[in-house]
Design brief:
heterodimer; A: alpha/beta; Ubiquitin-like (UB roll); FAD/NAD(P)-binding domain; 7-stranded mixed sheet; 5-stranded mixed sheet; 9 helices; 25 strands; about 20% helix; B: mainly alpha; Arc Repressor Mutant, subunit A; two-stranded antiparallel ribbon; 2 strands
């Protein structure tokens, strides 16, 4: 099977050299540049691993490195995120938590034996001996794999690099790139860090924007003097070190970043809707489907349901139609609701409730649009207050009009302050970047 | 079997959250400790909002009064090789800080 799109009316997909990767003993076609999760899905692999407790099938869901659903063993290392690991020729991938294989796992009997759930608090408590034996059995069956021997870590203590700037911006999506451009334009030394393989954030998943727009915005930021670093992941705010520093993982080692002002433009995480079997492979976050079709040129399925109301799912439906993919639009006006997914191990149909009653629609992929959940952990560690607001998508950072949070020297902008969408996020980023730089330079 | 999964890392279902609330666990920290949600590889990125809102509905508490559980570093899955050396790896340069003591012993 090959789900890649080779002819598109508007876009051209630049693919690297053809490669071969191995997954659970079978060989699959891939292209240089594709993340392993994308390459395997494009070549027909639907199930990557099994879940830890019920051994339910797992596959890519968010395609942005956040949901933990695509963990596989790659070249001997367990728990690698397949969506964040580039494929390479001869790469050996294996599913986890499955016997004998992810596609068909005998241990998934657990899911059928406990249809109403397995309460680990009250399991086998009748007998101490049976309990002790069961604990050992369960520990053998669960867990996410053993490290290879030798583990292959560095022989010497890793290098740590210190970086000190006026303004550091965490995230290079629409808000972060606008903040970086605005901050650098004031003359402030500006560093913009992004965890993904290239700048753009949600723009790369958005048919209204895409790579060209992301590249143009990144160029405007660097032209203004901002330093833009991809593959740089903020790990923690460490208040006890040197008056506080941001620990950042880069391919070249750990960075200790200090700045006069910190601007969090971390965006939002993909979340799922609540319906029966909402974790079936084939149920994707809408923006994961966006990344597949807009960035990677991969069809999500033969018939795709786009679920949810909003400008983003509307744009995604238009894009899927332009690719010639049959689609079903569900819940555009809020009158319809998905209640269940069917199919094992992968999706084959959805049950949908509407005022006219319940109906079953065949489909092999669902793009679920739920408001992205603000990625507010980092600003929270840094002391900024957050508030749970359903209409904002979750725990949104509290800010004033210029993006100041409740913590000194800490700003936030874009979807981390409640879902805004790319255009409003860019405007908020511009204001926050400008205000942060003025404070950093001691200007009014 | 049919389950509504709210935390896919730890296989926590909507029924598990409702059961925890019925037992009297009614804030996010308690529900986290009882069900295990938010303790897997995603550390709550996908499930925190969903469970916080489910908790608000189940307990009748207004969402704005619900506090998130404590966030701890690292924020994403991070390889230990960024922080530590592998004592089994052969390396002649065992004294990077140059104090005349092998680093491995200082760490131990």
């Amino acid at each position: 099977m090959d789900r890649r799109i080779y002819e598109h009316p508007l876009r051209t997909f630049r693919r690297g050299a053809p490669l071969t990767v191995e997954f659970d003993g079978e060989r699959y076609r891939a292209f240089a540049g594709e993340p392993a999760a994308v390459a395997l899905f494009a070549s027909g692999v639907d199930v990557l691993s099994r879940s830890i407790k019920y051994h339910r099938p797992r596959a890519l869901f968010c395609l942005s490195g956040h949901c933990g659903a695509c963990l596989v063993r790659i070249d001997g290392m367990p728990n690698e995120r397949a969506c964040r690991t580039p494929c390479s020729d001869g790469q050996v991938l294996k599913g986890q938590n499955a016997f004998p294989a992810s596609e068909f796992d005998l241990l998934s009997a657990v899911d059928w034996l406990y249809p109403r759930g397995l309460d680990h608090h009250t399991m086998m408590t009748g007998s101490r001996t049976v309990n002790a034996v069961m604990q050992k059995v369960v520990r053998q069956l669960s867990g996410l794999g053993h490290l290879p021997t030798p583990a292959g870590g560095p022989g010497a203590l890793p290098e740590v690099t210190g970086r000190d700037v006026d303004v550091v911006i965490i995230g290079a999506g629409p808000a972060g790139l606008a903040a970086a451009r605005a901050a650098a334009a004031t003359g402030a030394r500006t560093l913009c860090l992004d965890e993904q393989d290239r700048a753009g954030g949600s723009l790369l998943a958005d048919p209204r924007h895409g790579e060209a727009d992301a590249d143009a915005r990144a160029l405007r930021a660097t032209d203004a003097g901002a330093e833009l670093v991809s593959h740089a992941t903020a790990l923690a705010w460490c208040p006890e070190d040197d008056g506080g520093l941001l620990a950042v993982a880069t391919p070249g080692g750990l960075w200790r970043v200090t700045a006069r002002r910190y601007v969090y433009a971390t965006g939002g995480y993909e979340t799922n809707a609540l319906f029966e079997n909402n974790d079936r492979p084939g149920v994707f976050a809408a923006r994961a489907v966006g990344r597949l079709v807009v960035r990677w040129g991969v069809r999500p399925g033969a018939r795709v349901a786009v679920v949810g109301a909003g400008a983003y799912p509307d744009a995604l439906a238009v894009e899927l139609a332009a690719c010639g993919i049959p689609l079903l639009r569900v819940g555009r006006d809020g009158s319809e609701r998905v209640v269940a997914a069917h199919g094992s191990p992968v999706l084959t149909a959805l049950d949908i409730d509407s005022p006219r009653g319940r109906r079953r629609e065949p489909c092999d992929a669902v793009a679920v649009w739920e408001l992205p959940s603000p990625a507010s952990e980092a600003p929270r560690q840094h002391g900024a207050s957050v508030t749970l607001v359903e209409q904002k998508g979750g725990f949104a950072v509290d800010i004033d009009d210029d993006g100041r949070t409740t913590a000194p020297s800490v700003f936030a902008c874009g979807d981390v302050t409640g879902y805004l969408g790319p255009d409003a996020a860019a405007r908020a980023g511009e204001r926050a970047g400008n205000a942060a730089a003025h404070e950093a330079l001691g200007r009014p | 079997m049919s389950k509504v999964i709210v935390c896919r890392c730890e296989d926590v279902t909507l029924a598990d959250v409702e059961h925890a609330v019925a037992l009297g666990y009614c804030d996010l920290e308690e529900v986290k400790r009882y069900t295990g949600f938010g303790t897997g590889p995603c550390q709550g990125k996908e499930c925190l909002r969903v469970i916080a809102l489910a908790l608000a509905r189940a307990t009748g508490v207004p969402p704005e009064s619900i506090a998130p559980f404590t966030t701890r570093p690292p924020l994403v899955p991070t390889p230990l090789r960024l922080f530590a050396r592998d004592p089994s790896a052969d390396d002649s340069d065992d004294d990077r800080d140059g104090d005349g003591q092998p680093d491995a012993e200082e760490l131990a």
